[in-house]
Amino acid sequence: MGHGANFWSEDGRVARVIGTFTEISGLKTQRQNLQLALENGHQGLWEWQPELNSVHFSREWYLMLGYPEGSLTSMANHMAPLVHPEDRAHVRQNALDLLQSNADSVEVEHRLRHRDGHYLNILSRGRVVSRDEAGRVARVIGTHVDISQLKRTQAELFESRKFLETLFETMPQRVFWKDRDSRYLGCSRLFATDIGLTDQADVVGLTDFDMSWHEVAEEVREEDRLIVSGAVSHINNVSYVRSSKGAPIWADTTKVPIRDQSGNIVGVLGTFSDVTALLAEQQHLQTVADTFTTGDDPRL
What we know:
By secondary structure, the chain is of the alpha+beta class.
């Protein structure tokens, strides 16, 4: 970029030129990178001058919301009506809090109406960059980020989680899940009750050394290590352990790996059932059967 000034002779001719050249290729590259980041990140820049009731948006903002570039310039007349009716009160309150306090930044989630009528979930962040002599906010700049996909994903995960919770609570088996280090991350209500907890959330962070079967904790954790290492695809066994009340029981346990979206093993999902009564009944039936089929006077 060049800037120059002409110096004229008495007869009106250019006698000399003095100027400067500034290297701006780096600045252009930075601008191009910023523009690319804004476009790929589904976000746009905004500038608000409260005293003038004026607001300005970047080209990327207009592309994100679908409005003609430069068509929205008034916060009260143009922007306020675009905010979802259910969000207007808290957006207005956040703006007032910024204007009436010494805060230098604001962050709020709300919905903005796209030109075609649907709403985008927006994460709005702003920072005060100048104040007038009386200390009033003169200029705020910030970003609007489209987080609609994130919100949809969160909703889908919530629904999936609620489905799994309902499934776990209706299963007769006790359900638990752990991380790769054999720390409990969650469990079903029946599992929590069996180990003496009133709140399922209290299981988070516990290990098998904290359980009533702590005497066999190392063997249990070795099974987990086989699962998370990928050495085995599942484990099923019946073992003799103690319940939270100290009574010995037979537990039928099954474990499988938990995988993330990339297929990496991130933990262990397990179920167990108290089969003490079932095994006792089987033993009783076997004893009865032996009585009828063996001895000097078999009856079958």
